[in-house]
Design brief:
The complex is a heterodimer of chains A (about 230) and B (about 230). Chain A is about 65% helix and about 0% strand. Chain A has about 230 residues and is mostly helical. In chain B, helix 7 packs across helix 8. Classes of the chains: A mainly alpha (about 230), B mainly alpha (about 230). Chains A and B meet through helix 7, helix 8, helix 9 and helix 10 of A and helix 7, helix 8, helix 10, helix 11 and helix 12 of B.
Chain lengths: ~230, ~230
């Protein structure tokens, strides 16, 4: 995993924290990544010129090109970082949830929608604009879908006819779930995301549980601020 | 290209091909119409080759072998030209999907027939498939909004499925939206990979996926199995 903003501070053990070149680079990296995410969300990837990134991140050309040889490398870094952090949240809430697989999935979806809701600009860059930024980002988006699909595969044990599910069934479900925030982000209606949360849960569970049970768990799936990542 | 005149056995891209060189017997109106079609064919080609953002009006006019003046007589800018091509594809698809669906006796088979026609088209027309499902996302907010509008225009056709049985009437309001989004995102990922589409497999999987909420898992699986073996 690459250096996360604020993580991996290179503090010599036992001594006073000293500012090193590594710290300064970490800090520049994260400023560049943040500025780029915001620009991509507002202008689209193609129209996010390097000059605009430099201006917004308050860094020089030399630093930027030392840290990121090409513009696409910034997008890759911020996508990987956002994806890693979001999957950490999703995995944690999936593990922490004491209920069965359906409740765990509901908790995981809540973490995902929560992350989108908490940082819509970053979410828009990663979920909407990444599809427009060429093969490297498309491959990452694809990998993200596959990784998310793994959480759903556990449901096959509960579905009576799971053996008949096509291999890619979970990927299609993930596509439908991603479409919900995608649409909201595209038209700037982030406030609809909490309302869509329980519908997303029902959309998933219907494929694995009886309809009554799916609706029941979705109905109990509550969106509340305490569930949001800080 | 005019949808009414489109011969279903000929790829649209062929019809959008350039005029033969040399003298011809076309009237000025026919030439003008043809120039517009050549520009539309050209924008499809150059967007696929270079990506939307790298496409310029010059690239389009060079590929179409028409002058910049003719371009600006037809379109305000490159986005307008792209939008025109995009809308032709959307309209064409809507026509062939609805036409195929109309021939079927009941709702599930109408869905399957529409799906199959859509997949056959995407498979036969990889350039237009990418224009529709991949490049349209990169072509700015207006085109993305048109894509969304085109997709959700199919919501009412899916919603009819709620009449299939009482349980389907209680589906969450966003069900149709999510199903269409799921299909679009799967197909977008499939055509972006530039590999041939496995039409029977995709028809089977997507049919099962779409039908399940409406007709129940068991019947959906049976209908989808039938769909796999369609000629």
């Amino acid at each position: 995993m690459r250096a996360l903003p604020g993580a991996e501070k290179r503090t010599p053990s036992g001594g006073r924290p000293t500012v090193t070149a590594g710290d300064a680079d970490d800090e520049r990296r994260s400023r560049i990544m943040r500025a780029t995410a915001e620009l991509i969300a507002k202008r689209g990837y193609q129209r996010t010129r390097v000059e605009l990134i430099i201006e917004r991140a308050h860094v020089g050309y030399t630093s930027l090109y030392r840290l990121f040889p090409e513009k696409v490398d910034i997008f890759i870094a911020l996508f990987d970082d956002a994806s890693d952090r979001t999957f950490e949240l999703i995995e944690a809430s999936y593990e922490r949830e004491p209920g069965g697989w359906p409740e765990k999935v509901a908790a995981a979806v809540r973490s995902f929608f929560g992350a989108v809701y908490a940082d819509p600009l970053l979410a828009k860059a990663c979920l909407v604009e990444s599809l427009t930024a060429g093969p490297a980002l498309a491959a990452r988006y694809e990998a993200t879908v596959l990784r998310a699909a793994e959480f759903l595969r556990g449901g096959r044990a509960l579905a009576s006819r799971s053996a008949e599910f096509p291999e890619t069934y979970e990927e299609v479900i993930v596509g439908g779930v991603l479409w919900m925030p995608y649409q909201c982000l595209l038209v700037g209606e982030v406030e609809r995301i909490p309302d869509l949360y329980s519908e997303a849960v029902e959309f998933i569970l219907r494929h694995y549980l009886s309809e009554g049970r799916a609706a029941e768990i979705a109905g109990a799936a509550e969106w509340s601020p305490r569930n949001l990542p800080s | 290209v005019s949808v009414e005149e489109h011969d279903p056995d000929r790829p649209i891209a062929d019809e959008l091909g350039p005029l033969p060189a040399g003298r011809h017997g076309f009237t000025p109106e026919e030439v003008a119409h043809n120039q517009r079609e050549r520009l539309l064919a050209a924008v499809v080609e150059v967007v696929d080759e270079h990506g939307y953002s790298a496409v310029t009006v010059t690239r389009i006019t060079e590929a179409a072998s028409v002058s910049r003046r003719v371009f600006y007589e037809n379109f305000d800018d490159k986005q307008a030209c792209f939008v025109a091509a995009f809308e032709i594809v959307v309209e064409h698809l809507r026509e062939i999907i609805l036409a195929a669906a109309r021939l079927e006796p009941d709702w599930p088979h109408r869905i399957i027939a529409g799906l199959r026609v859509l997949l056959d088209f995407l498979d036969a027309e990889p350039l237009l498939a990418r224009l529709l499902l991949v490049d349209s996302l990169a072509a700015g907010a207006e085109v993305a909004a048109r894509f969304r509008a085109a997709l959700i225009s199919f919501v009412p056709y899916l919603r009819t499925g709620r009449e299939e049985r009482p349980k389907a009437a209680q589906l969450p309001a966003s069900t149709e939206d999510s199903l269409l989004g799921a299909v679009a995102s799967l197909l977008g990922r499939a055509v972006a990979g530039r590999a041939p589409l496995d039409v029977p497999r995709l028809t089977n999987e997507l049919a099962e996926f779409i039908l399940t909420p409406y007709v129940g898992a068991k019947r959906a699986a049976a209908l989808a199995e039938q769909a796999r073996t369609l000629p």
